[in-house]
Structure formats: C-alpha cells, structure tokens
Amino acid sequence: MTTETSTKENNSFVLRGIKDVTFEERPVPKLAGPHDVRLQVNYTGICGSDVHYWQHGRIGHFVVKDPMVLGHESAGTVVEVGESVKSLKKGDRVAMEPGVPCRRCVRCKEGKYNLCFEMSFAATPPYDGTLAKYYVLPEDLCYKLPESLSLEEGALMEPLAVAVHITKQSGLKQSDTCVIFGAGPVGLLCCAVAKAFGAKKVVAVDINRERLDFAKSYAADSTFEPSKVSAPENAQRLISENALGVGADVAIDASGAEPSVQTAVHVLRAGGSYVQGGMGRDEITFPIMAACTKELTVKGSFRYGSGDYQTAVDLVSSGKIDVKKLISRKVSFEDAEQAFEDVKAGKAIKVLIEGPK
C-alpha cells in the first residue's frame, strides 16, 4: 500500500503467528503518490477480525503468512501531505477509511468499490494495519473531523460505517420495524443507525442479558432473549412479545450465528428484507422455503461503500448517534496485547488503543 523510507521510527504492533504478537520499529511509510497523506495514528479500536487473526492466523481464505501489523479502526492527525492534496493540511484530524481499492475494475467503476478484488485493506493479509505510529492513505479516504468530534469518536467511524452499509442494504424506510440479531458493537450501531434512519421500532436480540440491557439503554426500543427452542418458535414469541403484527419489515443478522439467521428469516413479514452482516461458519442450514414463500429480499453486506464513511461522520456530528457510550476504556500502546485479551474475554464493548508517543 505504501513505499517506505529507511528511517525505522514507526513503532508497530505486529502479529508474527498464532497468538504471537510483538512490538517492532518499522520503516516510516512515505507518500506513494501526490494525493497521499501521512498520518500519525492517535487511536485504534479492536475489531473481532483483529482478534480472530491473532487467535487463528486466518479468516476464510485470508491467511497470515508473514508478520502483519494489526488494526484498522483508526483516527489520526495529518503530518504530511502530497503535492496535489487540496482537501487536507498538516494538523487536520481525520477518520481513516482503511481500504484502498484499485479504482479501475468493473466493481469500482460501478460504485461498489468495497467489492474490488484488488482491495488493499489494512490488517488483511498481506497488508499491514494501522496499529502503528504512522500510516499513509489517499486524501479521499481521510474524513476530516468537525471540531465537535474527538479523535476517540473518529476511531469508531469504521464500525459505524459498517453499520451504515448494512442498514442501507436493508432498504429500511421511515416507520419500518427492525429486528437486529447480535448486540455486539456492530449490532448496537445497527440499532442506532436504524433509529436514525427513521425506524419506528428496533428490537435487539442476543443470548447475553448484559448486552441486551446495554442495547436497551443505548438505541433499542425493546429486547429479546431467545430460548433453546426451534427458530420458528423463537420467531413467533419475538413477534408476539414485541407487537410486530404479521412480522418485522427488516431483519439484520450481526451475529453470524446459525440460529439467529434462521430466526431472522422466520420473524420477517411477507415481502420483508433480510441482511446478513455477521460472519459465521462457511455453510449453515438456511430456511429457504420461508425465504421463497414470503418472497424476501435477501442481501449480504461487506465492509462499506460510497458515502458510508461520510454518513457515519454526519450522524455523529449531528447528534443523531452517540458513539462515546460504546468506548469501554482507552489503553496505552504498550498495553495493546492485554487489550486484545480483554476483548476476547468479552470484558468490553470497544477498547481504544492510543497511538505510540
């Protein structure tokens, strides 16, 4: 993604192998083109994918073969700009969109750059991530933060952009009812985006009562804790207890859990919309008859696309969504490994790692 100078003053948090991380002084990245900017990374959140690479060394066909810097949920400060950069200057604070598409393929040219096969995405093998002192991005992937937004909030624009994309994929309309499965960070943010987009009722579903209590205090109108019964039975109770009439207009799975996927299909009304946002097993049993006979719209969702990051910034700066409530705590760069341990153990919603001094 970047070329490098010979100056090794770029302290980085590096995954060397399964459950094997270390700190390394790496070369300071330099600008690869006239539209690039170099950023000092101020805060980085920990994503489930970072934890998965750390624990398993792979996600699907993405396999860590060489040491890789982790992290992709970041905000930083501009320290150098290319000669053609017009929208940013040294000292600007930005949210960092961590995937650089090729901009030339069919998917890019039709506006779906998140589906680019040549995407260089931070902390996805073989590309290094943002848990470092410095990082380089094109200027159009850096979103200037209004004065009202902190750098800590800026680091949460990445998961919020994911939630924006998922919710947009659903086609959710004003006054729709929406059921969201999974009350982790992305599920919680989907609740908030659905409300911001005009949903009249948002129901959060999870097997963890503590998460559900937080969801109710954050953005959900009501919650549902599934029982160990069939998906149709859980769906019927969910509909009944939350006054969803003939079923929900929109269902979003942000868990990746097979029972959630199945219940989501059954909870929808005829003609409803389903979006798969969570990643689970490669293959599951899917209630295809219900999807067909109810003529559901079924879509996947992958990262974020055109306009999603800016929408995320606008939703927070306008006061429609509060991401500060999701920040469990901040830790120093030196405590990054412990932060990963805590996230794996479910001891936090979002932990932010400060950039190296």
Automatic annotation (TrEMBL):
Lineage: Eukaryota, Fungi, Dikarya, Ascomycota, Pezizomycotina
Coiled coil: none
GO MF term (any one): zinc ion binding
Record text on cofactor binding: Binds 1 or 2 Zn(2+) ions per subunit.
InterPro entries, per the entry: ADH-like_C, ADH-like_N, ADH_Zn_CS, ER, GroES-like_sf, NAD(P)-bd_dom_sf, SDH-like
Keywords: Carbohydrate metabolism, Metal-binding, NAD, Oxidoreductase, Xylose metabolism, Zinc
Catalytic activity: xylitol + NAD(+) = D-xylulose + NADH + H(+)
Biological or metabolic pathway of the protein: Carbohydrate degradation; L-arabinose degradation via L-arabinitol; D-xylulose 5-phosphate from L-arabinose (fungal route): step 4/5
Name the record gives this protein: D-xylulose reductase
Names of the cofactor(s): Zn(2+)
Homology family: Belongs to the zinc-containing alcohol dehydrogenase family.
Domain Enoyl reductase (ER): 16-353
Domain of life of the organism encoding this protein: Eukaryota
GO biological process: D-xylose metabolic process; L-arabinose catabolic process to D-xylulose 5-phosphate; sorbitol catabolic process
Known function: Xylitol dehydrogenase which catalyzes the conversion of xylitol to D-xylulose. Xylose is a major component of hemicelluloses such as xylan. Most fungi utilize D-xylose via three enzymatic reactions, xylose reductase (XR), xylitol dehydrogenase (XDH), and xylulokinase, to form xylulose 5-phosphate, which enters pentose phosphate pathway.
EC number in record: 1.1.1.9
